Amino acid sequence: MPVAIAVRCRFFARLREQAGTETETVEVPPGSTADDVYEALRRSHPALEPNRDAVRVAVNQEFRDWGTTVAEGDELAFIPPVSGGAHRVGVLFELGSQPLDARRLEAAVAHPGAGAICTFTGIVRDNSRGQSVTHLDYEAYAEMATAQMHRIGDEIAESWPEARVAMAHRTGKLEVGEASVVVSVSCPHRDEAIAACKWGIDRLKESVPIWKKEHAADGT
User: Residues 163, 118: contact at Cβ < 8 Å?
Assistant: First the structure.
């Protein structure tokens, strides 16, 4: 039996800043858990967030519990609470740095049987927590973010089988007034479209690994 296994670790948003690196390979004893790996990393990087409730862990691009056992070659991603293109039939998911066009997403979900299209657009505002905001920087764990968007689309389809869903999120620098996220859902009836769209943006904010950094007018 090997005396140690090597796993690749990735840090995102403020955790990357705390660790001072984006990726790191760490060796731990066989049978170690995700929690053991994080504890080993904290010994090397004491500034890392100590509160496990403030960090989510993903193993091989799937959210897991801290007690999950890791294996040689696994990739672990340590993710702060999220803020958050590929096509399938009638469904669109995109992540990128280009400006968002809500009308384009609505066109992607439109069809003759859609009696209602509900669209949510998130806009960068000029203030937050009592401070003036000049711009935002959005960062994403891209591979996992797109996969999670697909999963949300599948979940919506289970609850609203006739829904069609489109989601897009910006990354990079966004100025005040720019759209950061668009979710558009079509359904035969308005109540379903409104409910499915609300559920979709709530789930995106909850589970898609995208973060924002706010830049205040005073330089903080």
Answer: no
**For the chain, counts of helices (H) and of strands (E):** 5, 14
Element (H, E) at 206: helix 190-207
User: Which residue has 């740095």 as its token pair?
Assistant: 97
Higher pLDDT, 87 or 172: 172
Average pLDDT over the chain, rounded to an integer: 90
Contacts of 13 (CB under 8 A, 6+ apart): 79, 80, 139, 211, 213
Domain total for the chain?
2
Which pLDDT score is estimated for 3?
Answer: 85
Q: Are 192 and 134 in a shared domain?
A: yes
Indicate whether 107 and 212 sit together in one domain: yes
Which CATH number covers residue 64?
A: 3.10.20.30
CA separation, residue 207 to residues 86, 98, 125, 144, 217 (Å): 18, 22, 22, 10, 30
pLDDT of res. 1: 59
Domain, as residue range, for 179: 86-216
Q: How confident is the model at residue 123 (pLDDT cuts 50, 70, 90)?
A: very high
For 8-19, how does the pLDDT look when each residue is reduced to its tens digit (9 = 90+)?
999 998 899 999
Rounded to whole angstroms, the Cα distance separating 139 from 96 reads: 10
Q: Write down the pTM of the prediction.
A: 0.69
Residues 47 and 139 placed together within one structural domain of the fold: no
Distance of CA 85 to the CA centre of its chain: 14
Give yes or no: residues 129 and 167 share one domain.
yes
